[in-house]
Design goal:
- The structure holds 2 protein chains of 2 kinds.
- By secondary structure, chain A is an alpha+beta fold.
- Chain A is built from 9 helices and 21 strands.
- A 6-stranded mixed beta sheet of chain A has the order 7-8-9-3-10-11, sandwiched between helices. A 5-stranded antiparallel beta sheet of chain A has the order 2-1-4-5-6, with helices on one face. Chain A has a 5-stranded antiparallel beta sheet with strand order 14-13-12-15-21.
- The radius of gyration of chain A is 24 Å and the shape is globular.
- In chain B, helix 4 crosses helix 14 and helix 10 packs antiparallel against helix 11.
- The chains are: A alpha+beta, B mainly alpha.
- Chains A and B meet through strand 7, helix 2 and helix 4 of A and helix 1, helix 10 and helix 11 of B.
């Protein structure tokens, strides 16, 4: 492994174990305050571990035993570059000088640094803006420059902390694609709460919640078969946990959820049932007919979700059309029935 | 904070105030005391201007003693401003960025010269660097005599001016935060490189205004200087001391020299204000 981190920071409630292989991208997915930024801070050297060790290319960046520091490499000697939510470009330098900052700081000659800045300017298609000041750039342009500046420093590990969070919705897809291209060979840790970032950019996902890694695996697997409630909610999926019975997944609430397919597991195995909100129908009275899973639920909130409205309840989330919301008179507090076809529910062992 | 909001703010600081904007948080009655306050500051300066003997102005301010005082004032004020920068920038850095026990106490102590009557500052300096002072005796052994020399003038001015620089720069450093420094370090810049290429440019407006304040305070220093350095023409008699002395014998000369001090202050503030606004870093 190129990068390995196993550390605790009790003051921030963090206890994580992470590793990234050469050239791969690991996404840390988790809600705000889950400990993603703390983990990045440990790698960058803005935070000290209380216990544990952090290594990059076999070199110990930081190590501590029970609060006593046993090894420490200063942030500027780590070759770990950080890109935050805000571009944080140096306002007194031009775009070109910003990109050349890393090479210059690491001892490259003026000419070498300029050549490297030129190459990265071309890579982000902003050669025309080389002599502009950061204040004159758009948000998307500024973030592209920030990416080029980080990569021009030739980091062995790149840390991206919610790199798309501060951008307009319109700029995000283009930047995401560009990042995908630029990060192809770069060892990277990406902290995000956006499932799309993880899908497009990451080879692997570690779901962080409450300062711990609660789930870990290849991106597609984690997002299509989430085992934790958070992974399911960010994947936009409904998740019901229970145990396997001959009939289906029996939840703690006493319901039995029917899914499609019969997993090859013994009775009593811990199971997860997953369905997409779009597969959930909302009714005012108990629905009849075809093999369905039905749940009594209370509406908690209504939020726009693309062209649909996401109805969150105390049970599952459902995506319905604005027309249905009006027709059913949906509002927080309203009692409803939720129905999901068995064919729309995936069940698998946890 | 979202990027569009950042851009918007950048735009409003660049452009002039929008005439369509309605001022908020300004009760109308505030104008009256504000105008009185403004007059209280400006009127004495105008009054002094009316008392100037313009026909002899040139002769009054170019007399030998006046010229010597002006030259000495400028030299010592520049020297003490430099001393304040050399000592004050690291002090502000340590106070703003360092983490050590007693930091709060140290921050309060730095402010002492700000609230101390300058005469008391002079007495304190005398008990340190005077012939019988704490350090003075051992320095005298080395052949160094500080009290009642030009060096004493510089020390007196630095003593009273230092807090102005430290306080403005420390405030600017705190406002700027450490986020840019973290990014710069992650790009491979050593702490000294970060200071030189990122931190100081970032706090440039605060550093500049602190420097101007320190220079102005040094230029106007009177109490500590006369106590610690005395009033020797060409050696320790700076312009404020000369004004005070002339007031007894030649009031016209005192007024003329006062106006000269005002002019120097206005020129310094105007020059730095324009440069500060133009070279400000976001």
């Amino acid at each position: 492994m190129t990068f390995e981190l196993a550390a605790t920071v009790p003051s921030r409630g963090l206890d994580v174990r992470l590793d990234v292989a050469e050239g791969r991208t690991l996404a840390l997915l988790g809600p705000n305050g889950a400990g993603k930024s703390t983990a990045l801070g440990l790698a960058a050297g803005t935070l000290r571990p209380h216990d544990g060790e952090i290594t990059l290319d076999g070199r110990t960046l930081a190590a501590a035993q029970d609060g006593r520091r046993t090894a420490w490499v200063a942030p500027h000697r780590r070759r770990v570059a950080l890109l935050a939510q805000d571009p944080m470009l140096f306002g007194h330098l031009t775009v070109r000088e910003n990109i050349a900052f890393g090479p210059r700081a690491q001892g490259a000659t003026r000419r070498e640094a300029a050549a490297r800045a030129h190459r990265w300017l071309a890579a982000i298609d902003l050669t025309d803006l080389a002599d502009r000041r950061p204040a004159t750039l758009s948000g998307g342009q500024a973030q592209r420059v920030a990416i080029a500046r980080a990569l021009a420093a030739a980091p062995r590990l790149l840390l991206l902390d919610e790199p798309m969070a501060a951008l307009d919705v319109d700029t995000t897809p283009a930047l995401r694609q560009r990042l995908q291209h630029l990060l192809a060979e770069q060892t990277t840790i990406l902290a995000t709460h956006d499932v799309l970032d993880a899908l497009v950019l990451a080879d692997e996902v570690a779901v962080v919640d409450g300062g711990r890694v609660v789930e870990r695996g290849p991106t597609a697997e984690v997002l299509s078969r989430p085992r934790s409630a958070f992974a399911a909610s960010i994947a936009g999926l409904n998740l019901l946990s229970g145990t396997w019975t001959s009939d289906g997944v029996a939840t703690a609430g006493g319901e039995v959820v029917h899914g499609h397919g019969a997993p090859d597991v013994v009775l009593g195995t811990a199971m997860t049932a997953v369905c997409r909100p779009a597969a959930v129908a909302v009714h005012l009275t108990a629905p009849h007919g075809s093999p369905r899973n039905t749940f009594r639920a209370t509406v908690r909130s209504l939020t726009p979700h693309g062209d649909l409205v996401r109805v969150r309840t105390d049970r599952l989330a459902a995506d319905v059309t604005p027309g249905s919301v009006a027709e059913l008179g949906l509002a927080p507090g309203r009692e409803v029935w939720l129905a999901v076809k068995a064919a729309e529910v995936d069940v698998y062992p946890v | 904070m979202s990027a569009p909001a950042t851009r918007e703010r950048a735009a409003t600081t660049r452009t002039r105030r929008d005439p369509a904007e309605v001022p908020a948080g300004l009760p109308r009655w505030a104008y009256l005391p504000a105008v009185v306050g403004g007059l209280f500051v400006v009127l004495p300066l105008i009054a002094m201007g009316t008392r100037v003997d313009w026909s002899n102005y040139g002769a009054l301010v170019t007399s030998e003693s006046a010229r010597a005082a002006l030259v000495l004032s400028l030299q010592t004020a520049v020297a003490s401003t430099l001393l304040c920068l050399v000592l004050g920038i690291p002090m502000a850095l340590v106070l703003a960025r360092g983490r050590f026990p007693g930091q709060g106490l140290l921050r309060s102590l730095v402010l002492v010269p700000l609230v101390l009557p300058p005469v008391v500052g002079g007495v304190a300096l005398l008990s340190t660097f005077g012939r019988r002072g704490l350090l003075g005796e051992s320095m005298e052994v080395l052949g160094l005599q500080i009290a009642f020399s030009t060096t004493a003038v510089v020390l007196a001015q630095s003593f009273v001016a230092l807090p102005f620089l430290v306080v403005s720069l420390e405030g600017a450093l705190r406002t700027a935060g450490e986020r840019y420094d973290v990014v710069a370090a992650s790009l491979g810049a050593s702490p000294t490189t970060v200071l030189r290429r990122v931190t100081l440019p970032l706090v440039w407006p605060g550093l500049l205004s602190g420097t101007v304040l320190a220079f102005a305070r040094a230029l106007g220093e009177f109490g500590a200087t006369i106590t610690f350095a005395g009033s020797l023409q060409g050696v320790t008699r700076t312009l404020p001391l000369e004004v005070y002395l002339q007031r007894e014998t030649d009031p016209d000369a005192a007024v003329a020299l006062s106006l000269l001090l005002v002019a120097v202050a206005v020129v310094v503030i105007a020059a730095t204000h324009r440069r500060g606004a133009g070279g400000a870093v976001r």
